[in-house]
UniProtKB/TrEMBL annotation:
GO molecular function, one term: ATP hydrolysis activity
Keyword DNA-binding set for record: no
ABC transporter domain segment(s): 25-257
Cellular localisation: Cell inner membrane; Cell membrane
Residues of the full protein shown: 266 to 526 of 526
Keywords tagged on the record: ATP-binding, Cell membrane, Membrane, Nucleotide-binding, Transmembrane, Transmembrane helix, Transport
One annotated Gene Ontology cellular component of this protein: ATP-binding cassette (ABC) transporter complex
Family note: Belongs to the binding-protein-dependent transport system permease family. HisMQ subfamily.
N-terminal signal peptide: none
The protein, known as: Amino acid ABC transporter ATP-binding protein
Keyword DNA-binding: no
């Protein structure tokens, strides 16, 4: 396992030089409806390996639904999604979700397990890993997100930011090629947001492919390779952050930016 530190002492260092092999995603003509309510209308998106794509847009524009389509928490009505060239609809959803990890606004940790236990449990359940190996990898992942000192604490004894980093470590433990983040800092107290965003920025620099739904415009500007602006179930504009933020083309993006910046 290329992500495993060579020694326990290395795992304790916060400067573990982890590298990831991010995968590519190609979304074509993707449409999705909840019953009669059509919420995505022909989305096209190219996400290159090892890049960070930030999705911005007003509430209800379909950002979460698009993210959920990418790891098949919901099924589209039309279109296709390729992961490294293969349609994700050929895989079993549970296999896909090892390759495409997701982190949510709510941390969804088990309250009766420690941080270490939460990450190890996921490895044992999803990857059917033996206990020793699961704990070893879980410890390395928690060190990677800066929680080596806190891994024996239960969620209630961790800050919201630390809990969210446990959730990120849990997703990373599956060795994903793509990480999806849905407003992961929205529920955090303001002083805890920065640490989580810094971790995500570092993850982006380390080769992980990331798709990040966020209201943090400074993060999008600084970290994203590509920013996608969605409105009413469509991609209205997509491009480099400087182009989008400094030179918006559509009136809808101009209006959105004037409201959030
Ligand atoms: P965003 O994440 O941009 O706020 P969502 O993808 O959550 O947007 O929602 C897009 C649209 O789909 C909204 O109109 C929302 O009300 C609707 N929607 C979201 N989830 C469901 C659901 N589970 N059932 C029915 N409608 C939903
Ligand atoms: Mg949402």
């Amino acid at each position: 396992d290329m992500h495993l530190p060579a020694s326990p002492s290395l795992a304790r260092s916060s400067a573990v030089p982890v590298r990831y092999q991010g995968g590519s995603l190609e979304v074509s003509d993707l449409s999705m409806a909840y019953g009669a309510l059509k919420v995505l209308h022909g989305i096209n998106l190219t996400i290159k390996p090892g890049t960070v794509t930030c999705i911005i847009g007003p509430s209800g524009s379909g950002k979460s639904t698009l993210l959920r389509c990418l790891n098949r928490l919901v099924e589209p009505s039309d279109g296709d999604i390729l992961l490294d060239g293969d349609s994700i609809f050929k895989f079993k959803p549970e296999h896909l979700r090892r390759r495409v990890g997701m982190v949510f606004q709510q941390f969804n940790l088990f309250p009766d397990h420690t941080a270490l236990g939460n990450v190890a449990l996921a490895l044992r359940k999803v990857k059917r890993m033996p206990k020793d190996e699961a704990y070893k990898i879980a410890a390395a992942r928690l060190a990677e997100v800066g929680l080596a000192e806190r891994m024996h604490h239960r969620p209630s004894h961790l800050s919201g930011g630390q809990q969210q980093r446990v959730a990120i470590a849990r997703a990373l433990a599956m060795n994903p090629e793509v990480m999806l983040f849905d407003e992961v800092t929205s529920a955090l107290d303001p002083e805890l947001v920065k640490g989580v965003l810094q971790l995500m920025a570092r993850l982006g620099e380390s080769g992980m492919t990331m798709v990040v739904v966020t209201h943090e415009m400074n993060f999008a500007r600084k970290v994203a390779d590509q920013v996608v602006f969605m409105d009413e179930g469509r991609v209205v504009e997509a491009g480099r952050p400087d182009d989008l933020f400094d030179n918006p083309q559509s009136s809808r993006l101009k209006r959105f930016l004037s409201q959030v910046l």
